[in-house]
Each structure stands twice: as C-alpha cells, then as structure tokens.
C-alpha cells in the first residue's frame, strides 16, 4: 500500500471560521459519498487510474474553470506534444500556447510552463508531495494543490473548487456568495470537518463527480443524490437559491479594431504582450482608437495600403467584460520588409488552424474563404 503523507495543519483563518459538524455527520457524509463514487462515479477519464503526478497536475490545471468534455481532447493532444515534465519545461512557450490555443484562460498555460521550469530547477523535475510547497508554485492554489496531492500521493487534505462549493453550500445550507471571503472560509471549514480519515482519493473524486453530474447548477438530480437525506437546501426548498449567486453587476463592454493585412495568402499577425488578454498569443495588429488605418500602416510599417470596408463585427465574451472586434481589411499595395518589427509574422492562412491564435481570431481567419 502506498505510504500516506501527513495532512497539513489547518490555516488559522479557516480554524477561526470553522463550522461545527457533528462527529456522526462527517463519517456518514463521507462514507455515503465514497460508496456512491464506487458505483456511479467517473472511472475512465484519461487522467484517472494513474498516480503519475505530471499527468494529474496537468489535468487539474486544465480543469480549472473548464468542463471535462472540453478538456479531454486538449489533454490528450498536450500529452502527445509534451509527454513528461522535462519535455514541457524544455519547450518554447509558443509551442505550449499552440497546444493550449482554444482552451481559454491562457494564464494557465503560461503558469504551467513556468511551473515546469521551476520544478526542474528546484525539485529535480518532480512535483513535491507537500501541499504547502505545491501551493506556492505558479498556477497552483490551495484547492488544486490538495487535489494533486490526494490523487498523486494519497495526502489527506480538503478541496474546494466550484463544484465542491455548490455541494457543500447546499448540503449544509450555507447562504452567501461563495466568492466572498467569509463565506469561502466557512466552506473551507466544512470541507475540513468532513474529510474522512481514509480513502481520501475516492472521497475527493466523489465530491468532484457529484458536483459535476448530480448536484449541478441548474436542474440538479436530487432524486439520485447520495446526500439527499440530510441536505438542508433540499429539505428547506432552497436548491434553486443555494449557493447564493454572484451579485449582479453590469458587464463592461470594450471595442477593438483589428487590422486584416493580407499578402500572398498570408496574414500579418503580432505577438500579444505577455500579460493581459490573450497574453503571449499571436493576433491581428490592433488599430489605435480613432486612427486612420492607411496612415497608421504607413507610419508603423512603412507600408502603402488601401483600407476597404470593415467586415462584420466579432462578439467575444470574457469573464469580466465583453469585447466587440471590428476587422478592418487592408489591401497591401507595397510593403517595406526592412520595417518589420520583432514580434511580427506573416502567417500563411493555411497554417491558421494550428497556430497559437485566440479562438475567435483563428475561427475568423479560417472562415475567410481564401486559399488555405
């Protein structure tokens, strides 16, 4: 049997906010969840049935804010490109972003690459089994560190991702937005109290599975839930209102005009800054607000272009704002190659599908109807 690492001590904040759960509730909750997971849980996902820390770490990062169905093909392709941690650490960031392109939340890919390099430098190319050390690595927070440690090393520690917050908030009847600090601390306390002494892998997987397949955000299958007998939200008729949703606020809108410069079946792209939206990816050059396209191209690229009629806008939603993109096509009349800056690239349209482009830009370029 694999030797278990000692569980980390609870944080002072979580201890202060601890919600008391009776000793009879905790084992009952855990044992029902473990039994349910054995019969009804997910057992054939590509990152399951392994204790390889690299594969488990990769899956947990990809699953942050992304559904399993979207992650599976990316996970499989990523492993073909980077089969182990040394391969990922040695790869150029651009190759990593190419494999990630379309999965969204690109800071995860940049952190994954940086984390791999730190693991090579500081831990000899292996992931530490210490939760505190894991949590200090780029892109790995407390919950992700606990999941990696549980599945890879059998460490006993609580997780609290979005699905788990929903399960615990409903079962314990916790009101308040889980993103609020005091509510999150209360949920952490409940998560700690309900941890079983053994079988932490099955318990952790069961929490994830129940939240993803039964205790769903809308239309939960309460009749199939192993925890329904003492679920506070179900008993009090608050399934539809717990957890408390994020307070409503107006989503800001932004506008951007992107230059579509085509030459010899290739399009001009530039690398985005490392921070901010689409950081490190290639995209169409952005035209400053209010600037004339022909004059801008003459000044920046020493190019003579003819600005044509703008194309239909592209609408794209981010977590915190909505972006309206106006593609501005420009016919290139003459181009001074010597004026090209570092970070610019003439990308053949036929290669757009495999380039490190943001998903809406790739889709747009592939739908131009030009030779590819």
Overview of this structure, please?
There is one protein chain. By secondary structure, this protein is α+β, with helices and mostly antiparallel strands. The chain is built from 15 helices and eight strands. Strands 1, 2, 3, 4, 5, 6, 7 and 8 form an eight-stranded mixed β-sheet that branches. A hairpin with a 2-residue loop joins β1 (253-263) and β2. The radius of gyration is 24 Å and the shape is elongated. Residues 1-27 have low confidence and may be disordered.
What would you say about this model in short?
With 372 residues, this protein is of the alpha+beta class.
Using brief descriptors, characterize the structure shown.
single chain; 372 residues; alpha+beta; Endonuclease III, domain 1; Nucleoside Triphosphate Pyrophosphohydrolase; 2 domains; elongated; disordered N terminus
Mind telling me the CATH class of the largest domain?
Answer: Mainly Alpha
Assign a percent range to the helix content: 40-55%
Query: How many alpha or pi helices?
Result: 15
Report the CATH topology name of the largest domain: Endonuclease III, domain 1
Number of strands: 8
Instruction: Quickly give the CATH architecture of the largest domain.
Output: Orthogonal Bundle
Task: Write the SSE topology.
Layout: H1 12-16, H2 25-40, H3 53-62, H4 68-81, H5 85-90, H6 93-100, H7 107-123, H8 131-135, H9 142-153, H10 162-172, H11 181-193, H12 200-213, H13 232-235, E1 253-263, E2 266-271, E3 282-283, E4 286-287, H14 293-301, E5 304-307, E6 314-317, E7 322-334, E8 344-348, H15 359-366
Parallel strand pairs: 1-7
Antiparallel strand pairs: 1-2, 1-4, 2-3, 2-8, 5-7, 6-7
Helix pairs in contact: 2-12, 3-4, 3-9, 10-11, 10-12
């Amino acid at each position: 049997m694999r030797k278990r690492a000692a569980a980390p001590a609870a944080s002072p904040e979580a201890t202060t906010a601890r919600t008391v759960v009776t000793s009879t509730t905790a084992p009952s909750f855990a044992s029902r969840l473990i039994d349910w997971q054995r019969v009804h849980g997910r057992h054939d996902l590509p990152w399951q049935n392994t204790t390889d820390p690299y594969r488990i770490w990769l899956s947990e990062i990809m699953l942050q804010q992304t559904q399993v169905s979207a992650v599976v093909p990316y996970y499989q392709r990523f492993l073909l490109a980077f089969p182990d941690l040394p391969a990922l650490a040695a790869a150029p960031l651009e190759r990593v972003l190419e494999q990630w392109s379309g999965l969204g939340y690109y800071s995860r890919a940049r952190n994954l690459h940086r984390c791999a390099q730190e693991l090579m430098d500081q831990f000899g190319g292996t992931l530490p089994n210490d939760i505190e050390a894991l949590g200090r690595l780029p892109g790995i927070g407390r919950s992700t560190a606990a999941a990696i440690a549980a599945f890879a090393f059998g460490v006993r520690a609580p997780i609290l991702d979005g699905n788990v917050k929903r399960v615990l908030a409903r079962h314990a009847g916790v009101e308040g937005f889980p993103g609020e600090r005091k509510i999150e601390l209360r949920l952490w306390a409940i998560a700690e109290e309900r941890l079983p002494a053994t079988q932490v892998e099955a318990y952790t997987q069961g929490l994830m599975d129940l939240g993803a397949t039964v205790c769903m955000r809308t239309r939960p299958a309460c009749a199939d839930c192993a925890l329904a007998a003492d679920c506070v939200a179900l008993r009090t008729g608050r399934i539809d209102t717990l957890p408390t949703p994020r307070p409503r606020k107006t989503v800001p809108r932004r506008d951007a005009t992107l230059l579509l410069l085509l030459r010899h079946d290739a399009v001009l792209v530039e690398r985005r800054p490392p921070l901010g939206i689409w950081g490190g990816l290639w995209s169409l050059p952005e035209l400053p607000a209010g600037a004339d396209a022909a004059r801008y191209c003459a000044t920046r690229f020493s190019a003579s272009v003819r600005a044509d009629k703008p194309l239909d806008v592209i609408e794209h939603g981010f977590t915190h704002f909505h972006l309206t993109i106006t593609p501005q096509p420009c016919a290139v009349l003459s181009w001074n190659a010597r004026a090209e800056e570092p970070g610019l690239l003439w990308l053949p349209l036929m290669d757009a599908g495999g380039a490190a482009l943001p998903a809406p830009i790739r889709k747009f370029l592939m739908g131009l109807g030009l030779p590819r």
